[in-house]
From TrEMBL, chain B:
SMART domains: AAA
Record localization: Cell membrane
Stretches that traverse the bilayer: none
Protein name: ABC transporter
Family of the protein in this entry: Belongs to the ABC transporter superfamily.
Keyword line: Amino-acid transport, ATP-binding, Cell membrane, Membrane, Nucleotide-binding, Transport
Lipid bilayer topology: Peripheral membrane protein
GO CC, one annotated term: plasma membrane
Record keyword Glycosyltransferase present: no
Leader sequence residues: none
Chief location category: membrane
Length: 196, 244
């Protein structure tokens, strides 16, 4: 959950930078997206957990997992939000601008709510992917669902039952996210359903 | 007063406004006429700071729209209504109207929403106050757009072809509101193709052609045979518009 929130925060900020008027900020944001979207997550994870201590930066496994998932997820999240922002009719933003609203207010009250109307479903896919990717965290000794299942399976010698429960647990978790995303999508687009 | 002095604007190699001079005084209703591509909408966009000027100066009550620090003050004094409404699709009519008063003028939300409902009532939309833009007809959306502009209590109302996207019945609804505003003394600058309407409510008519201001005359003089109509380009334009 922390990583989902982290990736959403990072993604929102990066999407704002990518679509900003400043070429420098936009370039920096693009470099971040290209970098973390195009490197395997496990490599990023090993770099944070095994690489950084070599230069004196020690982070525990849980914090490393949250940071790594947030940063990697943020790259994908920002891309989804960016496409939502770019789909907004420029006339709407001009109307907000001439009415005297400040740029932060326009982003908060106009840009994000409208961008999320189209972005929320693909965002759901990113979040589900992050949940599934979290199973890789077991490789850095973090006992999340998969890591815990491995330990229990090796203790009990009942891998079939343990991993069957794990399958159901992941399926339930992602299904709940799908339901929540579906509800949020219907809420954000309630004017369309009520108009039909 | 809105003061436009020597305004030039080009898009690439195409000069859209070429040395425009215009003054709009408080209480005036100024119609800007001209064929498509004459620079009418660009002039409105320059007045509200949406386009950067390539030359010249525009001030609204002495606030220069080209200076970022003065632009916000200029925008507090003017409001724009757009051709394609540009309502915020995720907000109801009331929320569309109340947003800027709450955020810019710092009016308490309850009061801003009550004011918004009063405005909607004045344009016959009180029953649609909580509807989203997608649930409104074109004419209703444009009336919300006008209310959104009026909610900021602007000294100057800039209207950019606000009936172009409407059918004749909806157009007459919107024009009736403008006529009422003009009667109440609201200062307006509007770009329009509704010649007869412009004739009815305008105090002055400005005619643009190929980015240049051809005439700026009181309405009666503009339509007089020895006034604006004496200019072949204007006579040709009016003749064509009346045929259409």
């Amino acid at each position: 959950m922390l990583a989902l929130a982290g990736s959403l925060c990072i993604g929102t900020v990066v999407a704002a930078l990518v679509t900003s008027a400043s070429p420098l900020l936009s370039r920096i944001a693009y470099v971040y997206v290209d970098l973390f979207r195009n490197i395997p997550f496990i490599v990023q994870l090993f770099f944070f957990f095994y690489g950084l201590p070599e230069i004196g930066i020690y982070i525990d496994a849980f914090t490393t997992g949250v940071i790594a998932l947030s940063i990697a997820g943020g790259a994908f999240t920002s891309d989804v939000i960016r496409s939502g922002i770019l789909s907004i009719d420029p006339g709407i933003l001009e109307a907000a601008e001439v009415s005297g609203l400040s740029k932060p207010t326009i982003f908060r009250k106009i840009v994000m709510p409208i961008a999320l109307r189209t972005s929320v479903r693909p965002l759901g896919s990113v979040f589900i992917n992050l949940i599934l990717t979290s199973s890789i965290l077991s490789t850095i000794t973090l006992n999340e669902l998969t890591g815990s299942a491995k330990i229990v399976a090796s203790d009990t010698f009942r891998p079939f039952e343990i991993y069957a429960v794990l399958l159901v647990a992941y399926a339930c978790l992602t299904y709940l996210v799908s339901l929540a995303i579906g509800a949020l999508h219907r809420y954000l687009n309630r004017d369309q359903t009520e108009a039909a | 007063m809105i003061s436009v002095r020597g305004v030039r604007k080009a898009f690439g190699s195409a000069t859209v406004l070429d040395g425009i001079d215009l003054d709009v005084h408080s209480g005036e209703v100024v119609s800007i006429l001209g064929s498509s591509g004459s620079g009418k909408s660009t002039l409105i966009r320059c007045m509200n700071g949406l386009e950067k000027l390539d030359g010249g100066r525009i001030t609204i009550d002495d606030f220069d729209v080209s200076r970022p620090k003065e632009l916000s003050e200029a925008r507090k004094r003017s409001a724009t209504v757009f051709q394609l409404f540009n309502l915020y699709p995720h907000m109801t009519a009331v929320q569309n109207i109340a947003l800027a008063p709450v955020e810019v003028l710092k009016i308490p939300r309850k009061q801003a929403e009550a004011d918004a409902r009063t405005l909607l009532d004045s344009v016959g939309l009180s029953a649609r106050a909580d509807a989203f833009p997608a649930q409104l007809s074109g004419g209703q959306r444009q009336r919300v757009g006008i209310c959104r502009a009026l909610a900021m209590k602007p000294r100057y109302l800039l209207l950019d072809e606000i009936t172009s996207a409407l059918d004749p019945e909806m157009t007459s609804d919107v024009l009736a509101i403008l006529a009422k505003l003009a009667h109440d003394g609201t200062t307006m600058v509007f770009v329009t193709h509704e010649i007869e309407f412009a004739r009815t409510i305008s105090s002055r008519i400005v005619f643009l052609d190929k980015g240049q201001l051809v005439v700026d005359l009181p309405t009666a003089e503009f339509f007089a045979a020895d006034g604006g109509m004496a200019k072949p380009r204007i006579a040709q334009f009016l003749s064509k518009m009346r045929k259409d």
